[in-house]
Amino acid sequence: VDVLRNLVSKYTANFPSRPSAADLREPTTRGDVVFVTGTTGGLGSDILSILIHDESVEKVYAFNRPSGDVAARQRTAFRDRALNEADLDSPKYVPLQGDLSQPDFGLTPEQYAEVCSAPKNGLSQLIFFFSGSRLGHAYPPQWLVHHSMDWLAQ
User: 31-71 pLDDT, tens per residue?
Assistant: First the structure.
């Protein structure tokens, strides 16, 4: 537990302060953008389905490891979990594949620029949710943070 608390403290030290009540009353013209990893897994598929239906979410970048046709893998994951495959036809859903350990996550320059520009284009906020992990291994929290979130603190 102390390890996790220390990691939270380290990676949230430079976060901006919470908005004031007055700021929260100002309506945003556009919704949130969510970048979620591991959406072809069990938890990730459920999260993706919820986000697609959430009216406060404008776009969901569904990021997964490279392995064949990511859109087909996503449909299979939805089918296996009895989720509505038609949700994946939503304009909110943007399937991506890459590697979090690579510069720019292994995305094309255009994809990376699009993800990074979301908060600058009038969107409420860009939210990162890491639901996936390396397959078949248990890693200590320090390793997962280093390889999945280090760039966020920069």
Answer: 788 888 888 988 889 989 999 999 888 889 999 888 888 88
CB atoms within 10 A of CB 97: 20
Comparing C-alpha atoms, which of 96, 84, 106, 102 is closest to residue 147? 102
- Structure tokens, 49: 């389905």
Which amino acid type is present at position 33?
Answer: V
Q: Give φ, ψ of 57 to 5 degrees.
A: -105, 125
Contacts of 149 (CB under 8 A, 6+ apart): 11, 128, 130
As a whole number of angstroms, the distance between CA 27 and CA 152 comes to 26
Query: By C-alpha distance, which of 36, 92, 93, 40 is closest to 66?
Result: 40
- Helix, strand, or coil here: 137? coil
d(CA 109, CA 124): 23
- DSSP lists the bridge partners of residue 34 as 60, 127
Q: What is the pLDDT of residues 72-106, one digit of tens each?
A: 999 999 999 999 999 999 999 999 998 877 888 88
pTM score, whole prediction: 0.67
